[in-house]
Prior knowledge:
This protein has 451 residues and is α+β, with helices and mostly antiparallel strands. It has helices spanning 5-12, 19-23, 37-47, 49-70, 129-136, 138-196, 202-237, 253-257, 272-293, 341-407, 413-447; strands at residues 32-35, 75-84, 90-94, 105-109, 114-127, 244-247, 298-311, 323-333. The chain is built from 11 helices and 8 strands.
Amino acid sequence: MRIGKGKKSLLFLLAWIWAPGMQAQQHFPAAIHSFSLQQALDYAGQHNVQVKNALLDIQIQRETNREFTGSAYPQVSAGGSVVYNARLPVSLVPAEFIGGQQGEFIKLAFGVNWGATGGVTLNQLVFDGQVFVGLQARRTLMEFQEKQAEITEETIRANIYKIYYQLVAAKTQIELLDANIDLLNKFQHDTRVMQENGFAEKLDLDKISVQLANLQTEKTSALNQISNGYLGLKVLMGMPVKDSLILTDSISDEKIRDGILEMEDFDYGQRKEFQYADLGIALAEYDVRRYKLSKLPTLHLNGYYNYNAQRQKFDFLKKGDWFDISAITLQLNIPLFTGFSANARIAKAKLSLQQSINQREALKISINSEIETARNNFNSAIATLDYQKKNMQLAETVFQQTKKKFEVGMGSNTEITQAHTDLKTAQTNYINALYSAIIARVDYEKATGKL
């Protein structure tokens, strides 16, 4: 049974996307994992590289917030310096100051060769509107980053849903192939007996052998595709490829339909992308406020306390005088004219805010379209699945009846070969319909924010 290219690709496409990361996993001992779908999702939440990096982005944002918060706290620093004046500055002083003749000047060197200073400095932001708005935006920034991580995780979840249940459904494909092989083996045995008794030709036996060979080749190909599908699922989950993975959940027509009516109740807030857009608008509003408050005065408090000493020699550790000096400064900065740059920043922030609002409105339209498309695809997939299941059952009945006619000499080998071909086609169509229904359900759940 052949599966459509679009369906097969989901089983092994991801097997090579993260191929570089697979090399680092080869040194770990192999383990055996028996996972339900939920366990597979939980494992991916802890080991998928994209999810782990998204969670690290949250921690990075948390540290960025802490860094920004630090700017509102007092900034205290300590320091010291030692100065050696290799050549002291010389000044000309009227000689009459020290008893000399009027009109003459003498050269005097002022200062000492060595000086030392040590002390502490305090800087405190008292008021800055932009900083205060930034402090208010910290929580929204965290939520923004967390929502981005949730969107990343949801994308991974959707792919795991699809691959997991397609691999589960692939068991049905193998079961149908095995059933066909058993059927043809029995038919081959019966035909051989009929040939030995003169009721069938060797050509009839050869045709059955060809069909069996084709089925065995098809089964080998299907098993290889399933093996690649397991490889892709492991890589998507972040599992070492040498580990063994056993899927414990099952899939059925009824399970695909289960709970679908609950998806009809929808509001935009259920979509993580819409929540993300709302947070983007909130951040854009903070930008507008920040630039507006940049027009307000800023107030800073500064202070220092220093000790200094002067020596003719480097002997600061010995006895000698040290002199203290301190000052406190309250600095007020009033922006009177900034060349209209503040107004330009405000205008730009308002335009960016409007862009964010427009993007959210466009997202609504996109979500509506996505939901309608997903609903249509799901309804079509379910209808096709029902039809193909009935058709497969009918083809099975036709084959069995044709086989009985052949066995009693009332049918030809051509008729039974055609009946079996029709049965295989019907089985292939059913498997493809089952795969399509699985994908359609996951897409519908994701579109309605219920994945």
